[in-house]
Specification:
about 375 residues; alpha/beta; Aspartate Aminotransferase, domain 1; two-stranded antiparallel sheet
């Protein structure tokens, strides 16, 4: 089976995990700190805080930046549901925003502006598929309205400018991400005080952690704020360090595979919509996390999925529209986002990961060409 995503784990990861086991120190310690510093350096930041997941990262960001009851937060509906859930965790109200277009499925600045109210406190910009949203436009949007700007960079590890323009940014190391620690996340913030607060909040609000007390030969601590158990452990940090060393090379492989997809499938437009095709006409940066395509409106998506599955090609959907999930539909029944809903209904995600080669891309395109009720242009693969 050619998978949508497949992590690369091998001897280096096994070695560093063994080293942690042999060290006898498993909880948050020196390796976590080394991972934080290395990740920050990779993204041009002064420091970072490692946490248990990207969900934890988003929750801590909202709490540290003072988002709470009575506040509204502008959120994309075209995102994983955790982006929206975290707003509720903070006690605030999510306000769903449409995407720009089917071929540009990032949060719409115009729709966000239309939905600002006196209660709007923050906006979460999600770098869908690893394509970093317009830095200048969103900084101007937030600063002109006095809003907190948060980057959901779950898809964007290693992408140029990711995490560099929001008040804070959250990254993911889940098993299908560009680098993985199985579960895990990272926070980058522009304000050192905010980052320090997040560092303390991830560990129950304690003024010192176990490793600090061990290293400094002290036994006491205080709790000065409400905190959470959102720590990263040494095992995950060790794997993260090993993975981070190869992130740039892996992202470059993803870029080349994505470029090939665009070239091979590009001739079938307008039958097939290729999100971010315009992006590849200029040297803009992306982590190329996933390869989304949008099927023609009259195509049986499940039929295409079934055909590819029979040929041992996995596909996925990134994502069902968050506002149409049962929980949120019941909370906000009047929400209608035309472009997001159409995108969610017609989108499929094709395999994209560094284990793939050029022949795999050609195989996927050939399979698409043979799918029922969906014939690509003749000579596409010539």
């Amino acid at each position: 089976m050619l998978l949508v995503a497949e992590p690369i784990l091998g001897s280096e990861e096994k070695t560093v995990l063994s080293d942690v086991v042999d060290s006898g120190w498993l909880t948050m310690g020196g390796r976590v700190r080394a991972f934080e510093r290395a990740f920050a350096e990779t993204h041009g930041a002064s420091d970072a805080v490692a946490v248990s997941s990207c969900t934890a990262a988003l929750h801590l960001i909202l709490a540290a930046l003072g988002v709470g009851p009575g506040d509204e937060v502008l959120v994309p509906s075209m995102t994983f549901v955790a982006t929206v859930n975290c707003v509720l965790y903070a006690g605030a109200t999510p306000v769903f925003v449409d995407i720009e277009a089917l071929d540009w499925p990032l949060i719409s600045g115009a729709d966000a502006a239309a939905k600002c109210t006196g209660r709007t406190k923050a906006v979460i910009v999600m770098h869908y598929a690893g394509y970093v949203a317009d830095r200048d436009a969103w900084r101007d949007f937030a600063s002109s309205r006095g809003l907190v700007l948060i980057e959901d960079a779950a898809h964007a590890a290693g992408a140029d400018q990711a995490g560099t323009f929001g008040d804070a940014a959250a990254f993911s190391f889940y098993g299908n991400k560009n680098i993985t620690t199985a579960e895990g996340g990272m926070v980058i913030a522009s304000d050192e005080e905010v980052l320090g607060k997040i560092r303390q909040m991830r560990n129950h609000g304690m003024t010192s952690g176990t490793f600090q007390r061990f290293s400094n030969l002290t036994v006491g601590y205080d709790v000065t704020m409400l905190g959470y158990n959102y720590r990263m452990d040494e095992l995950r940090a060790a794997v993260g360090l090993a993975q981070l060393r190869r992130l740039a090379a892996w992202n470059e492989k993803r870029r080349k595979l994505t470029r090939q997809y665009m070239e091979v499938l590009g001739d079938c437009r307008p039958e097939l919509t290729l999100p971010f095709a315009k992006w590849h006409e200029s040297p803009q940066q992306s982590s190329h996390h996933i390869m989304p395509v949008v099927l023609p409106a009259n195509v049986d998506r499940q039929g295409v999925i079934n055909t590819l599955r029979e040929l041992e090609i996995q596909t996925s959907n990134h994502y069902p529209a968050a506002h149409q999930l049962s929980f949120y539909r019941n909370l906000f029944p009047s929400v209608c986002l035309t472009r997001t809903e159409e995108f969610a209904k017609r989108q499929i995600t094709l395999p994209l990961h560094p284990r793939m080669e050029q022949g795999d891309v050609e195989m996927v395109a050939t399979a698409l060409a043979g799918a029922p009720d969906f014939q690509l242009s003749e000579g596409l693969l010539a």
